[in-house]
Specification:
BirA Bifunctional Protein, domain 2, three-stranded mixed β-sheet, alpha/beta, 11 helices, about 25% strand
């Protein structure tokens, strides 16, 4: 069977506003039929705290701590909770809801797309697998996560190694297109992460932190050898190609496309009304 060709874009480390604007622009261009499906890799400069579309910043985020650590800040167009983007590979997948390989439900589409990430972990020699909540109680818990921290909450078809979450993803569907993006953690500064959120008191914070360590882990905390960002990129590039059964063709944005993305970044993702509006 002939493989479908998708675009591959590696934008390297970019600003928080540019990163979110490009994901949105790719979704838009794909919905208009201007581009085929896309896999994108990126990083963050400066390291950034992103929050989910529905999160209440004032209630959940300590913005003084965000500034103190010199972090960027942006609201994502996708749901989910707060993510510290620092020592990680960030990916996004843009594909039509009508794509013949894409299931109609969010959960099942998430599993199909995440097959690429699963294969990437295998290329790194890690025994990753999908965890599916088995009991009604576990399924119910997914509907009302208690923490504002993304990696603290399991979800359907979560990717885990040794029982702990190794990648966090979020999805939105707009204009007939699926945008799924997420973080693949290479290393994690837990103290920094937990200093960015508000808690009723110190005791609750410490309890959350301890619970987090049992639920989430970075690649280099479990890999027998140190994995570099370049190695991770190669592994997940091959993982997506294999997991989705596609050929990836590198693509550079045109000047016109870059101009559009920068305009969107400035107007929406650098706008306080967007970032703090909830």
């Amino acid at each position: 069977m002939e493989k479908e060709t998708w675009r591959f874009i590696d934008t390297g480390n970019r600003s928080p506003s540019f990163n979110m604007a490009l994901d949105e622009a790719l979704l838009e261009w794909h919905s208009e039929g201007k581009i085929p499906p896309v896999i994108r890799f990126y990083g963050w400069n400066p390291p950034t705290l992103s929050v989910g579309y529905f999160q209440k910043v004032e209630k959940e985020i300590d913005m003084e701590a965000v500034k103190r650590h010199g972090l960027g800040f942006v609201r994502r167009p996708t749901g989910g909770r707060g993510v510290l983007h620092e020592h990680e590979l960030t990916y996004s997948v843009i594909v039509s809801e009508e794509h013949p390989e894409m299931p109609k439900t969010v959960t099942e589409a998430y599993r199909v797309i995440s097959e690429g990430i699963l294969k990437g972990f295998h290329h790194l020699g890690l025994d990753a697998y999908f965890a599916v909540p088995k009991t009604a109680e576990q399924r119910e818990a997914l509907k009302s996560p208690r923490s504002a921290v993304c990696f603290d909450a399991p979800s359907w078809y979560e990717l885990v190694v040794e029982g702990r979450k190794v990648a966090g993803s979020a999805q939105t569907r707009q204009k007939g297109v699926i945008l799924q993006h997420g973080s693949i953690l290479l290393d994690l500064d837990e103290d920094k992460l937990f200093s960015l959120f508000k808690y009723p008191n110190e005791r609750v914070k410490e309890r959350m932190k301890k619970s987090f360590k049992d639920k989430a882990v970075a690649i280099n905390a479990i890999s027998p050898r140190r994995i570099t960002l370049e190695e991770a990129k190669e592994a997940f590039y091959n993982g997506f190609a294999e997991g989705l059964n596609i050929d990836l063709v590198p693509y550079q944005l045109s000047e016109e496309e870059l101009e559009y993305v920068n305009k969107l970044a400035h107007e929406r993702y650098e706008n306080d009304e967007w970032n703090f509006k909830r």
